[in-house]
Structures are given as C-alpha cells and as structure tokens.
Design goal:
The chain has helices spanning about 1-5, 20-25, 30-40, 55-75, 80-95, 100-110, 145-155, 170-185, 210-230, 235-240, 270-280, 305-315, 335-350; strands at about 10-15, 45, 50-55, 135, 140, 160-165, 190-195, 245-250, 260-265, 285-290, 320-325. By secondary structure, the protein is of the alpha/beta class. The chain is elongated and about 75 Å long. The two termini are about 40 Å apart. The relative contact order is 0.11.
Length: about 375
C-alpha cells in the first residue's frame, strides 16, 4: 500500500557500451527477472546503452542502486552470476533498512529467483570485487565468487586468517597469490609455506632419497601453486636465498617468524598442540593464513583436528578472522562442486553418527567471524 501512495519516479542507468549492459544483467537477463519478482511495481526498460527505471520512488531508487552495483562489477570483468545477483539485492535491501513487508516480499515473491544461502547476509564488496590480485604470464588471478572476495578482503584486514572450506574453493591458491603480491610490494621480506606431513589415507611406506626428497611429495601442491605465480627460472633463486621457504610444519618449532607471509595448508591434519605451536610462531610484521577442509581429516583414529578446536577457542579474538567457503565457491571442474554437495547431502542424512569405516566426515556450519 505504501508503494502505491508514493509519487512515481524515473531514473536512468547509463552504460559505456551495449556489451557492458549485457554483462551487468547476467545470463538471459537474470538480474531483470529477479528485480521484477522482488520489486513488482518497478519497471526497467532498456534503450540503446541505457536502462530506464520507473516506479514508486523508494523502490525505483533501490533498483537503480542495484543496477549501478551490477554495472560496477561488469566494469571489473566480473561475471554477474545468480549468486552475485542475490548478494546485490539482499545487500542493498538490508543497507536501506527495509520495512518488514519488503523483506517478506523478497522471501516469498522472489523465492523462485533468489537461492537462500547463509552467505547472503553480509555486505557485498562491490568496489574491490573482481579486481586482480596478480597477473602472471598473461593469466589474471582474482577472486571469482563473493565468498572468495570476502576471504581476500579478510587477508588484507587481519593478521591471522583462517580459510575453511572444501577442496577446489581457492583457499590456498588465493592465499598464495596474496603472499606473492605482498612480497612484490615489499610488505614482507619472505614467504613461508608449510603443511603437516600426513598421509591421505594411503600407506606410502619407505621413501628413498635425501630428507628433501622424502618431504617434497607432501609439499608438492604448494610448489604447483607457486609455479603458477612466479617465473620458473626465478623460483630456485628465491628458494636458495630463503626469500621463499617451503617446509613441513615440524620445522616451525622453536622459531619466531618476523616480517613474513606464512601459509599453513591442510591445517585440518594438525593436532591441537601443533596448531597452537604454529600460531605462537607469529612475529612482528608477519601475517598468517591457515587453510583447511575440516571434512577431510587424515589424522589417526581418535585424534581431534586442531583446526576444529581452534575455531572454538579463537573466534572472538580481535585481529583473527575465520572465513568459510562452500561448494558454490568451487572453481575446479563442475563435477567437483557437485561431488562436494553430494557428500554434504549424504552426511546430513547420516546425522552426527559417522558411517562404519568412514573418517567421521561432517558438514561444517557456515559463519563469518571478523
């Protein structure tokens, strides 16, 4: 009723090109379809390189703001997906302090258009979303989902950051990109990469060769990411100089790590004592990123994951951020996301009791602690 009493208004949203407008509206004009469900009294009409918005003043102004946000994302080269559209609409609605009836309309009238995910209720970083972290050999490395952008922003804003989520969500890769960026900008003087040397369920037996030969298989994923971001001929020199160090977690004991960007990968395979030891290595001018997937713990039976424990202990400590990614953030093959979702569904059906012969996989609750 309030909408009907408002004076109709008209707003224009110009674009630099038709291609930019098409990119901002998403595949098959998804953004327009969502807006028509959430704001049925507002019309959006495309004309050349401009969108004309007409309707009750408050709703029309809201639609204009959402379209401008989408335009900003398109200009950074971000693909405007349905998930991003959801974030745009919900973020603007919450920022404006919408009346209960507006919130109800989003929940009911647009249910077919807006998937409901816990991540939808945090601010959307439209100014930085989609910006490149690194450009290496013609490839751009940047966050590709909203949760990934929040993770990257948390790395910028905090000293200790936990990135928790399933395989393929970019936890380690994005952290590595931020580490290389910090080294190039001389924000730190070295990068330290570490992970626990725990077998992923297989018995590898005796490994021949030097100590380096023995531990290299466990650290290979870190080397792989490094090769994507640093010229291959430069890496041996940086390793020899100690500017980049790749070592198993046990080698961190007794050290104080100053002026460094430190990444602990596969942290779900640490014990509570190990992760405490690692965190207390933090020195002046240092930043730590701890990544892991608490649904894939390879510790011996009965050993509790240090990553699970630390989320209960440090969640309220200032300067420490916990960022959670989910199946929708998977950027590997399409099937990886579907596999992760299928396992989560199966575990929900099993309840809290692990199936016989399993490792007690359970789905983590989603939350952001800053």
């Amino acid at each position: 009723m309030a909408d009907e009493l408002e004076t109709p208004e008209s707003f224009s949203v110009p674009f630099d090109s038709t291609a930019e407008m098409v990119a901002a509206l998403g595949a098959q004009d998804q953004l327009l379809r969502v807006l028509s469900g959430v704001y049925p009294n507002v019309s959006v009409t495309p004309l050349d390189q401009e969108l004309t918005v007409k309707g009750p003043r408050s709703d029309a102004a809201m639609v204009q703001s959402i379209l401008e946000d989408a335009r900003q994302l398109a200009r950074t080269g971000t693909t405007v997906t349905l998930e991003i559209i959801e974030e745009l609409v919900r973020h603007r609605t919450r920022s404006a302090g919408s009346a209960p009836e507006t919130t109800s309309r989003i929940k009911h009238d647009a249910a077919a258009h807006l998937p409901t995910t816990p991540s939808a209720f945090s601010g959307l970083p439209t100014q930085s979303y989609g910006l490149n972290i690194l450009t290496s050999r013609g490839r751009s490395i940047r966050p590709k989902t909203v949760n990934q952008q929040r993770y990257v922003d948390a790395i910028d804003e905090n000293t200790v950051i936990f990135g928790i989520g399933p395989a393929g969500t970019g936890k380690t890769y994005l952290a590595m990109a931020k580490a290389v960026q910090a080294l190039q900008a001389k924000e730190v003087s070295r990068i330290i990469l570490t992970r626990p040397a725990v077998e992923a369920g297989e018995k590898l037996g005796f490994l021949p060769g030097t100590l380096t030969d023995k531990i290299d298989p466990y650290l290979r994923p870190l080397y792989d990411a490094l090769h994507d971001m640093v010229d291959a001929e430069t890496i041996p020199r940086l390793l020899a100089a100690g500017t980049i160090e790749v070592a198993p977690l046990a080698y961190m004991r007794g050290r104080t790590l100053n002026d460094a960007f430190i990444i602990l990968d596969e942290a779900q395979n640490t014990t509570p004592e190990q992760i405490k030891m690692f965190l207390t290595r933090l020195g002046f001018g240092a930043k730590m990123v701890i990544t892991g997937d608490i649904t894939q713990v390879d510790l011996p039976g009965g050993t509790r994951s240090g990553l699970r424990v630390v989320t209960e202990i440090l969640e309220d400590v200032d300067g420490i951020s916990f960022q959670y990614l989910e199946a929708s953030d998977v950027v590997r093959h399409r099937l990886v996301s579907e596999i992760v979702s299928a396992y989560e569904k199966w575990n929900d059906q099993q309840g809290s009791r692990p199936a016989q012969g399993s490792r007690g996989i359970r789905k983590s609750g989603m939350k952001n602690v800053n």
